[in-house]
Design brief:
Elements: H1 2-46
């Protein structure tokens, strides 16, 4: 009976683990896109170029 419970637990845990990692990757990409957009907005509103630099928020 213990092996059945272990197998059932793994059948639930493995797809959940994969789904969790997919969501983490999507969130990381979203955060990166948001940082990029914020940097572009700072460059736009300060009138500086990327070479001159702007203090980042991070």
């Amino acid at each position: 009976m213990g092996a059945v419970n272990t197998a059932a637990g793994l059948l639930v845990a493995i797809p959940c683990f994969i789904g969790f990692n997919v969501l983490v990757v999507k969130i990381d990409r979203l955060v990166l896109d948001m940082r990029h957009a914020c940097s572009e907005a700072l460059f736009f509103f300060t009138g500086k170029t990327e070479e001159e630099g702007v203090n980042e928020l991070s």
